[in-house]
Amino acid sequence: MLSELKSEILHEVILRRPDDSHKGNFGRVLLIGGNIQYGGAILMATQATVGSGAGLTTVATDLINLTALRSRTPEAMFVDWRNDEQLTTAIQTNDVILIGPGLGTDEFATQLVRKVLASVNKDQILIADGSALTVMAENNLTFPRDTFTVATPHQMEWARLSGVQLNYQDNHQLNEVQRQILNLDVLVLKQHHTLIYTETEQKQLQIGGAYQATGGMGDVLAGIVAGFAGQFKANATKAVEAAVYAHSAIAQEMAGHSYVVKPTFIADSLPNYMARIQSNL
Ligand SMILES: NC(=O)C1=CN([C@@H]2O[C@H](COP(=O)(O)OP(=O)(O)OC[C@H]3O[C@@H](n4cnc5c(N)ncnc54)[C@H](OP(=O)(O)O)[C@@H]3O)[C@@H](O)[C@H]2O)[C@@H](O)CC1
Ligand SMILES: Nc1ncnc2c1ncn2[C@@H]1O[C@H](COP(=O)(O)OP(=O)(O)O)[C@@H](O)[C@H]1O
Ligand SMILES: [Mg+2]
Predict the structure, then answer these.
(1) 153 close to ligand 2 (CB < 6 Angstrom)
(2) E strand or H helix at 13, and its extent?
(3) Boundaries of domain holding 199
């Protein structure tokens, strides 16, 4: 049954922080992506993860992105993704791992995807976006069974991964079957009015619009999903739903005065938006 994803999800998920909490309570999030060509993607995802309130954010990326990362989002820590020892430790010690924004699909990227899929454990949450999904499709890789997994494909990425072509993707039953085969817990199928498939439900976003049709919009969504999953651990599925809703709700608000909404503007307005939700404003 398909139901509407409503604004109530924000109030269910975005709660007031306990006064005696510290950064360790709000999730350790590792973001992996950003090759030479697509460094902007991981920077945008990082800005969104930090803006969404993740307790500690680490970025494993190409060394070429270090200066830009430090100047744009100094809150985040850095791991050189070619330093296997540091990368292995980062994969083991973070609660949430997002792989894919700007990762690329070359041999090194494929190696990284294989390593992450083989390393994550049952206490972690794995989010796969962008290039990671294309790599998985090209190499017939599936998600690890014991880990809570989320994929955020656009329709072409989902076509590659599931084998279900674009015109058939509104057949909900078919997607459900593919989800079972891939071992995927939550599928965020991005499009105009994005669909979210969970174990028991299918929900559709009914806000958002073409002002979001610009490169980097999905990278920011992936960063918010990671930040919410790390922070609002009580219910990871709801955290993903709230992230999807907040991303488009902010864009819709900005569209009142912006012909196109810059993805980084969404990332930067998250703290203000979340404060308003928490205060019921
Ligand atoms: N600043 C940066 O660094 C940026 C880096 N980025 C990074 O680039 C990497 C590659 O990601 P990607 O999405 O750009 O390329 P790919 O996976 O080949 O998909 C494009 C193909 O799919 C088709 N298509 C059909 N339906 C669609 C739909 N609903 N939504 C979207 N596309 C749809 C589409 O059709 P067409 O445009 O031809 O009509 C086209 O044939 C990835 O790692 C990402 O993170 C980007 O985020 C941009 C900013
Ligand atoms: N016409 C539209 N209406 C609503 N949302 C849209 C529209 N076009 C794009 N989006 C949203 O923008 C994001 C695009 O994601 P994606 O294609 O992965 O972008 P990128 O990889 O460039 O960051 C998705 O969240 C999608 O739902
Ligand atoms: Mg994308």
Answers:
(1) no
(2) helix 8-13
(3) 2-278
Residues of the chain with pLDDT under 70: none
Dihedral sign for Cα 197, 273, 49, 247, please.
positive
Domain with 44 in it: what CATH number?
3.40.1190.20
Helix axis angle for 263-278 and 236-255, nearest 10°, is 110
Count of domains in the chain?
1
For ligand 2, whether the C-beta of 217 sits within 6 Å is yes
Decide if 88 contacts 119 (C-beta within 8 A): yes
Binding residues for (6S)-NADPHX: 41, 102, 154, 219
Predicted model pTM: 0.98
- Rounded to two decimals, the ipTM of the complex is 0.98
- 232-249 confidence digits (pLDDT tens): 999 999 999 999 999 999
Q: Mean of the per-residue pLDDT values for the chain?
A: 96
